[in-house]
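sorry for the late reply, my laptop died twice this morning and i had to redo everyting from scratch. anyway the thing you sent over, i finally got around to it. pasting the sequence first so we're on the same page, its 135 residues, then the predicted structure underneath. double check i copied it right bc i was rushing
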Amino acid sequence: MTISPTFHVRETILTALQADAAVVALIPADRLYPSKTPNNPTKPFGRYGVETNIPSRPSGWRGGEVSGAYHVWVAVTDAIPDPKTYCEQCVDVVGEVIDALPDCYVERTQLLEDGEEADLWHGVVQFAFTALAEI
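ok and here's the structure:
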């Protein structure tokens, strides 16, 4: 058996996020996107970012060391008067879910205030994931 490390990691993370009650309480499951978002997505939403794969070929195994990020965006709404705090909460729960996956750990998180859109916050959860399959 062979493995596409980036596909495996993306699918594993998305499945875990969409199944987690704490995550979907903050961001509905249908707004947790793989990588492409619709035009003008409703906020809050999450999106899987780009990843980097370093191939790994230990004897009898194939796969890679994948590093990447999951992003969340939060804006002011009637239900979210404080988007920075809400974004922090989203980053925390997304990070907990990703960090709990086998062979995965969160490297760092970051909150960014959007420079062009007032009251828009962007959260980033950077991770490293070892994805190997026995051949």
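The radius of gyration is 16 Å.
thats about all i looked at so far, will dig more tmrw
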